[in-house]
Amino acid sequence: MPVEAQLLVVQIAVILLVARAFGWVLGKLGQPQVVGEMIAGLVLGPSVFGLMHGGAWLHTLFPPSSMIYLNIPCQFGVILFMFLVGLEMDPGHIRGQGRLVMATGTVGILVPFACGAGLGWVLATNTTLAGLVGGVPDRLTLMLFMGVAMSITAFPVLARILTERNLHRTRLGQMAISCSAVDDVTGWCILAFVVAVAKARDGAGAGVGDPTARSAAFQQAAWTVGLTAAYALVMVLVAKRLLAQFERQYERNGQFSIGSKVLILILIMASSLVTERIGIHAIFGAFLLGVIMPKQKAFVAELSVLFKEATVLFLLPLFFAYTGLRTELNLLGGGAAWALCGVIVLVAIGGKLGGVTTAARAFGLGWTPSLKLGTLMNTRGLMELIVLNIGLDLGVLPKPLFAMMVLMALVTTFMTTPLLQLMGKGDGMLEAGAVISEEAISE
C-alpha cells in the first residue's frame, strides 16, 4: 500500500474516533450529533490540534500534501448527502401549506439575504474591515455570497431536532419543515446563480473594474444559468418519468435489486458531473436528482437507508474534519477581529431568527410559536459549511472571513436546542395569543 494511502487510513481512523467521541458528549448535553462532529472538525484543525507542540503533531498527521487525498472522499460524501437532502425533501411539504408558510419562508430568505448582502457591502467598502477579513477579492460576488450564506437553513438538522423533541408531527413542526423546504430550494437556486457569477467574473478578470471584462462575465454567467435552467427542465419533464421505473420495480419486488442500486449511484455521479461541467457545482446535480426521485414513503425510506449510513457515519465526519483543517481561528488575532465575528453572528441571528419570527407573528402566530419557528429556521449546521467551503474554493471568502463564518454556523446550530428548551415543551400553537386558523395552514 502506498505511503499516501496508509496515511489516509490513519487520518480516517482518527477523524472517526474523535467525531464519535465529540458526538457522544454533545448528545449527552442534548445537542444533535452533528454539532459534536462540527466541533471535532475544529479541534482537529490548526485552531486547537495545531497549537500542540508547535504544530508538529498536526503537520505529521495532516501534512498539507495529504489534503488532496482527504478531499476526495469528502466530495463524495457531500454529493451523496445533497442527494439525500433532495430525496427527503417532499414537494408536498410546500404545496398546500397556505399563505402563512409561503410568506414566512419567503421572508426567511429575503431578510437574511439582504442583511448578508449589506454586511458584504460594508466589508468590501470599509478599508479597515476589509483588512480584518483578509481582503475582499470582488465586492459584488462577496455581497451575493454573504447573502446566500446568511439565508441557508440546515434542513436535515432541523428535521432531526424536531424528531428528537417530538415536534415533527405538530403543526409547528410541519410549518418549520415547510418553511425550510421553501428556503432551501430557493437558497440553492440563488447559490447556483452566485457560483456562476463568481466563476465567470474570475475567468474574465472582472474584479479589477474593467467594464468590458465585467460585461463578459455577466454574459458568461447568464449562459451558465440558462444551461442550468435547461438541464433542470429536462430532469423534471423527462428524467423524472424515467426514474418512476425504479419505483415500479421496487413495488414489484419489495426491494431494490443490485442493478438498481448501482444504476442510481451512477446517475447521482452523472448528474453531479453535468452541473459541474455546466459551471455551477457538482452538489446541485445530486440535489436536483434527489428532488425529482419518486416520493412514495417506503421507496424513499429504503433508498435513504442504502446511502445514509455510509454517508452520515463515515463520509460526513471526514468533511467536518476537512473544514476544520481549513479553519484558522488564529487568523482572528486581535479584539477587533473577534468583535467583527460577533457582529457577523448577530447579523445572522437577527436576519434569520428575527425575520422569520416577525413574519410568523404578522401572519397570526403567537409570540412563542413564532420565536420557536424562527429559532428552528436559524439552524444552519452542515448546509452552511457546504456553502462556505464552496466560497473558499472559489476565492470569494478570504480565510479569516471563512473562519468567522464557520463560527457563525456553529453558534447558530448550537443555540437551537437550548432556546427551544427555554421556551418549553410542545409546539406552543395552543398558547394564549397563538391565533391561527386551520384555513391559514391548509389552504
What can you see in these coordinates?
There is one protein chain. The protein is an all-alpha fold. The protein has a single domain (73-310, 336-442), classed as Na+/H+ antiporter like fold (Up-down Bundle), CATH 1.20.1530. It is 77% helix and 0% strand. The chain has 19 helices and no strands. α5 runs antiparallel to α14 (335-362). The protein is globular and about 65 Å long. Residues 430-443 have low confidence and may be disordered.
Separation, N- and C-terminal Cα atoms? 61 Å
CATH top level label = Mainly Alpha
The backbone outline, from C-alpha atoms, is globular
| Number of distinct helices | 19
Category from helices, strands and their pairing? mainly alpha
* Biggest β-sheet strands, sense, barrel: none
Rg measurement, Å: 22 Å
The total count of strands amounts to 0
CATH architecture: Up-down Bundle
SSE sequence, one letter per element? HHHHHHHHHHHHHHHHHHH
CATH fold label: Na+/H+ antiporter like fold
Secondary structure elements and their pairing?
Elements: H1 3-28, H2 33-44, H3 56-61, H4 67-87, H5 98-125, H6 127-132, H7 139-151, H8 155-164, H9 171-204, H10 211-253, H11 258-278, H12 282-292, H13 297-326, H14 335-362, H15 367-377, H16 381-394, H17 399-414, H18 416-422, H19 438-442
Question: Nutshell version of this structure?
Answer:
Helix content is 77%, strand content 0%.
Give a quick set of tags describing it.
443 residues; mainly alpha; Na+/H+ antiporter like fold; 19 helices
